[in-house]
Amino acid sequence: MKNINRTVRIIATGTLLLLAAVASAQPPQIQIETLVAADGATAGATLRTAIRVYLAPGFHVNSNKPLEDFLIPTALIPSPPDGITVTEITYPEAGLLEQKGAEIPLAVFEERFAIGVLLTLANDLPVGTYTVPGTLRYQACDETMCYMPTTATFDWGVRVWPEGATVTAQPSEVLDGIVFGGENAVVPSGGGAEFVVPAWEAPSVFETDDVVTMLHDFEILGTTGG
């Protein structure tokens, strides 16, 4: 009986240590590059922009439309100044990661991906330079675990030229590869300027009995998609 009690205490202690490690694990840092299709635009024009996201090797994030409700979707949250409106956000095509013992794969963005954003300038926007900030919300995972959801900030610099000014294109293979207006495009809800961002609340790992099981069984079998 003493040996059984000791074994139970060891298992319980080990489980709590594992859960604490999951709860305190720091999410990996990501790098974000901002891209703009031209050196500026005139008032009333729409400008193609994007962010290019670089994850550490071996990491992925959930797509903007994960296939399970409990997963945290990646979301780009723009905060443009007055006179500049975000009229479309285009996410990349998600890849699929199959998991051992799971019927539904994970819809993910892998180590390098880009999100396109259309910025529309008001007809009466004064000439000048503007900063368009944004936030990327994401949950990074590797082959063994998912980390706490977090955010990263970035901003675009947008130059508004006088009417009739010559605008110079800034070639970008990343921007050229984004299909604006396609099936992965997200537009403001209700014809307004606000995007619906799925709410989330980071759950306590102590609220589930399945954490250890999920971590033990988390094995990537293969990938499909882009």
What does this protein structure show overall?
The protein is an alpha+beta fold and 226 residues long. It has a single domain, classed as Sandwich (Immunoglobulin-like). It is built from three helices and 14 strands. It has helices spanning 2-24, 173-176, 211-217; strands at residues 31-36, 41-42, 46-54, 60-62, 75-78, 84-90, 95-99, 106-109, 112-121, 128-138, 140-141, 150-161, 185-186, 220-225. The strands form three sheets. A five-stranded antiparallel sheet has the order 1-3-9-6-13, with no helix packed on it. A hairpin with a 6-residue loop joins strand 7 (95-99) and strand 8 (106-109). The longest helix has 23 residues, at 2-24. Mean pLDDT is 81; it is low at 4-23 and 202-226.
Present the secondary structure layout.
Blueprint (H helix, E strand, L loop, with lengths): L1 H23 L6 E6 L4 E2 L3 E9 L5 E3 L12 E4 L5 E7 L4 E5 L6 E4 L2 E10 L6 E11 L1 E2 L8 E12 L11 H4 L8 E2 L24 H7 L2 E6 L1
Parallel strand pairs: 2-12
Antiparallel strand pairs: 1-3, 3-9, 4-8, 4-11, 5-10, 6-9, 6-13, 7-8, 7-14, 10-12
Pfam family, one: DsbD_N
Organism: marine metagenome
Protein name: Thiol:disulfide interchange protein DsbD N-terminal domain-containing protein
Can you tag this structure with a few keywords?
3 helices; five-stranded antiparallel sheet; 14 strands; Immunoglobulin-like; alpha+beta; 226 residues
Number of structural domains: 1
Let me know the number of strands: 14
Mean pLDDT: 81
Shape annotation? elongated
Low-confidence blocks of residues: 4-23, 202-226
Beta-strand content bin: 35-45%
Organism: marine metagenome
InterPro entries: DsbDN (IPR028250), DsbDN_sf (IPR036929)
Pfam families: DsbD_N
Protein name: Thiol:disulfide interchange protein DsbD N-terminal domain-containing protein
